[in-house]
Amino acid sequence: MKKIILLTAFITFTAVQMAQSQKTDTVVIELAHSSKVVFTIGDKKDLQQLRRYDFQGLFNDILDNLEDNDTLHTLRAINAEDSDVDEEDADTTEINNTEDSEDEENEDKEDDENNEDFRGRRDLGSCNSRTQASFNFDFGINNFLEDGRFPDDHDAQYAVHPWGSWSVGANTILHTDIGRHVFFEFGLGVSWFNFKFQDDNTLITKGENGVEFTKDPRTLDFNVSKLTAMYLNASFIPMYATGRHHHHSRWNYSDHDSFRIGIGPYAGYRLESYSKQGYTVDGDKKADKERDNFYLNNLRYGVRLQMGLESVDFFAAYDLNSFFVEGKGPKLNAFTIGVVF
């Protein structure tokens, strides 16, 4: 009888010890509003080794793979002080892509739409999540270069005042990522270019041989003389960003954490042009406006340099072709310096 009791006690003690040795500890850490990290510890002897892991590097690798849509990937974390450990002995962490239920997908979609980061950078179709759209405004100042010099260097009648020679543009931009740091910006929009002449009584006339800039002979109190042209524009700017979050929705500040720079071509087609003279007669302001092409080139093309930080970009655009048709006006190349917001 004593033998049976001792045998029963031994078996019970052994079972308890085995159960305790197989007991696992689980820690669940909730992150953000829909993410969690689960740690399962099968043997507390592992704790000493886990203290030596570079968890920051491990999480950086995990987040990089998630951002690249690589959701079926094995990450291997090796003890930094045990770099010669065999691959078979190295601990692994697997991130497996699981199919969510229909209800979970609807909940995730609602969460995304309510998430502040989601607004302003909605994907253009599910077929290409790397392309996003934004609506941007250009605002800048204009001037001319003539053989590399400003026209006012030789007191030309067509010399312009940069302050008052404004350009305004409204553009739709397609932002397409092609890598972690490289993206393309495709732009389509309209721009208005005003060239305000330094001499307020400058008169623009279109003759048979070309456009002429002369002083208006009338004895009036002139206050402005300018030439305005409107263009339909298209641009293609390859960009490089130092950081990975560089989406160009101007309404979402959280997507801009890197410096950006790029250069590329643009082209425009003239839609309208006119001259305007403003003057005062007996205290009343009046204006003469004449709509004409004034031998302006219907096409304009050039190079645009763009750089930015956070939600604002700065740009410089230079026309490679002459503002006027060759032989019909001075050889002027227009340029603009401004800001995108």
Task: Describe this entry's structure for a reader.
By secondary structure, this protein is an alpha+beta fold. The protein folds into two domains: 23-98, no CATH class; 131-340, Porin. It is 15% helix and 45% strand. The longest helix has 21 residues, at 2-22. The radius of gyration is 34 Å and the shape is elongated. The termini are far apart. Residues 76-101, 112-128 and 248-254 have low confidence and may be disordered.
Number of helices: 4
- N/C terminus separation: 92 Å
Sketch the topology as an H/E string, one letter per element.
HEEHHEEHEEEEEEEEEEE
The low-confidence runs, each spanning 5 or more residues with pLDDT under 50, are 76-101, 112-128, 248-254
Total number of domains: 2
Sequence of strands across the biggest β-sheet? 5-6-7-10-11-13-14-15
Let me know the number of strands: 15
Query: If you consult CATH, what is the topology of the largest domain?
Result: Porin
Tell me, what's the shape?
elongated
The percent of residues in helical segments reads 10-25%
pLDDT averaged residue by residue: 78
Largest sheet: 8 strands, antiparallel, barrel
CATH top level of the largest domain is Mainly Beta
Provide the gyration radius in Å: 34 Å
Helix/strand class? alpha+beta
- How much of the sequence is in beta strands? over 45%
CATH architecture of the largest domain: Beta Barrel
Signal peptide: 1-19
Region (Disordered): 79-125
Biased composition (Acidic residues): 81-115
Protein name: Outer membrane protein beta-barrel domain-containing protein
